From TrEMBL:
InterPro entries (UniProt xref): NAD(P)-bd_dom, NAD(P)-bd_dom_sf
Protein name: Protein HTATIP2
One BP annotation, GO: import into nucleus
Gene3D superfamilies listed in its UniProt record: NAD(P)-binding Rossmann-like Domain
Superkingdom of origin: Eukaryota
Domain NAD(P)-binding: 4-151
Regions that span the bilayer: none
Record's GO cellular component terms: cytoplasm
Species this chain originates from: Cepphus grylle (Black guillemot)
Molecular function terms, GO-annotated: catalytic activity
Length: 170
């Protein structure tokens, strides 16, 4: 494991060399980082990390994005997620897997009251519609690993929430 300074990411190119597969779950919130900080972390840092990984020999990049990602969205969060998906694809990996999970079910150390309320509601909904609106982070992690272990379905594969649930069972 290598610790890098994302503000000086180019100086840490050696940390990205010699890996066949790259996994990226990097992200922040607008509330925590502000709009500019959110864009810098969720788009710029991710795109630069992908470029460094590719230059270092990475063949398969696995990106956690978001349900509804769309570069043309009027919502900042979804627009930035769509933009970074396009930037990562443009890097030219032999294979790129993009996961678009719905609301992530997890326990956080930081307080996010609105997210906590949504998770409580969605936890109940998930009992009836287990793959519709949410996904446990453990399922996303298993799906990310499983995507690498299975043959690809093309150069770029986008996995929506239902497919993440299915692959996460593997």
């Amino acid at each position: 494991q290598a610790v890098v300074d994302f503000e000086q990411l180019g100086e840490h190119a050696a940390a990205f060399r010699g890996h066949d597969v790259g996994f990226c779950c990097l992200g922040t919130t607008r509330a925590k980082a502000g709009a500019d900080g959110f864009v810098r972390v969720d788009r710029d840092y991710v795109a630069q990390a992908a470029e460094l990984a590719r230059a270092g020999g990475c063949k398969h990049f696995v990106l956690q994005s978001s349900q509804g990602a769309n570069q043309h969205s009027c919502f900042l969060y979804l627009r930035v997620k769509g933009e970074v998906e396009n930037l990562v694809q443009a890097v030219g990996f032999d294979r790129c897997t993009i996961l678009r999970p719905a609301v992530l079910l997890c326990k956080r150390q930081e307080s996010r009251p609105a997210e906590w309320m949504a998770q409580q509601f969605l936890g109940v909904v998930a009992r009836v519609f287990p793959t519709a609106y949410s996904v446990p982070v453990e399922t996303v992690a298993r799906a990310m690993v499983a995507s690498v272990l299975q043959p690809g379905k093309g150069k770029v594969e986008v996995l929506e929430n239902g497919a993440i649930h299915e692959l996460g069972k593997a």
